[in-house]
């Protein structure tokens, strides 16, 4: 699988190609990023459902990355590229306004208050996401941890460059259209926690 990963890996040591869509061997209409994709179930589902879209997935854990690489290879998908390091580094590497969507799904909640500063949703990373998103593009966040949902809402509400798209309660209580579910979501339901699904639009 190491050879397959090398073919899929984004090389941050070189400048991003112009246009960024040439990361992919076949033409793509837009590009989406998934941060912390776990075993890759959602990433692979999305890439299979939208072959004209390019996907970049970030996952620092070796076992999860290996599982995803094997599944991508088995599915024969050519519209996925991968990064096994820090998502912040990848966001810094991307050209401005180059992404149509960023997904942050069930990130590590760092539930203890003294660890909240480690949460991925923070002012610096939101600056990075805002820079990489095109105007009108979406930032999607899902979590089953109430404190992290509240934290995310507060951080995004304080920013003039994002607007929360929810118009009614079901907009954050129900999964998004086409949502395949994830193993983290299944675990949340088993343990009696109800996830929230937030969508923010870049102004």
Automatic annotation (TrEMBL):
<feature type="binding site">
    <location>
        <position position="144"/>
    </location>
    <ligand>
        <name>substrate</name>
    </ligand>
</feature>
<dbReference type="InterPro" id="IPR055361">
    <property type="entry name" value="tRNA_methyltr_TrmB_bact"/>
</dbReference>
<feature type="binding site">
    <location>
        <begin position="182"/>
        <end position="185"/>
    </location>
    <ligand>
        <name>substrate</name>
    </ligand>
</feature>
<dbReference type="InterPro" id="IPR003358">
    <property type="entry name" value="tRNA_(Gua-N-7)_MeTrfase_Trmb"/>
</dbReference>
<feature type="binding site">
    <location>
        <position position="108"/>
    </location>
    <ligand>
        <name>S-adenosyl-L-methionine</name>
    </ligand>
</feature>
<comment type="function">
    <text>Catalyzes the formation of N(7)-methylguanine at position 46 (m7G46) in tRNA.</text>
</comment>
<dbReference type="InterPro" id="IPR029063">
    <property type="entry name" value="SAM-dependent_MTases_sf"/>
</dbReference>
<keyword id="KW-0808">Transferase</keyword>
<comment type="similarity">
    <text>Belongs to the class I-like SAM-binding methyltransferase superfamily. TrmB family.</text>
</comment>
<feature type="binding site">
    <location>
        <position position="86"/>
    </location>
    <ligand>
        <name>S-adenosyl-L-methionine</name>
    </ligand>
</feature>
<feature type="binding site">
    <location>
        <position position="59"/>
    </location>
    <ligand>
        <name>S-adenosyl-L-methionine</name>
    </ligand>
</feature>
<keyword id="KW-0489">Methyltransferase</keyword>
<comment type="pathway">
    <text>tRNA modification; N(7)-methylguanine-tRNA biosynthesis.</text>
</comment>
<dbReference type="GO" id="GO:0043527">
    <property type="term" value="C:tRNA methyltransferase complex"/>
</dbReference>
<feature type="binding site">
    <location>
        <position position="34"/>
    </location>
    <ligand>
        <name>S-adenosyl-L-methionine</name>
    </ligand>
</feature>
<dbReference type="Pfam" id="PF02390">
    <property type="entry name" value="Methyltransf_4"/>
</dbReference>
<keyword id="KW-0819">tRNA processing</keyword>
<feature type="binding site">
    <location>
        <position position="112"/>
    </location>
    <ligand>
        <name>substrate</name>
    </ligand>
</feature>
<protein>
    <recommendedName>
        <fullName>tRNA (guanine-N(7)-)-methyltransferase</fullName>
        <ecNumber>2.1.1.33</ecNumber>
    </recommendedName>
</protein>
<keyword id="KW-0949">S-adenosyl-L-methionine</keyword>
<dbReference type="GO" id="GO:0008176">
    <property type="term" value="F:tRNA (guanine(46)-N7)-methyltransferase activity"/>
</dbReference>
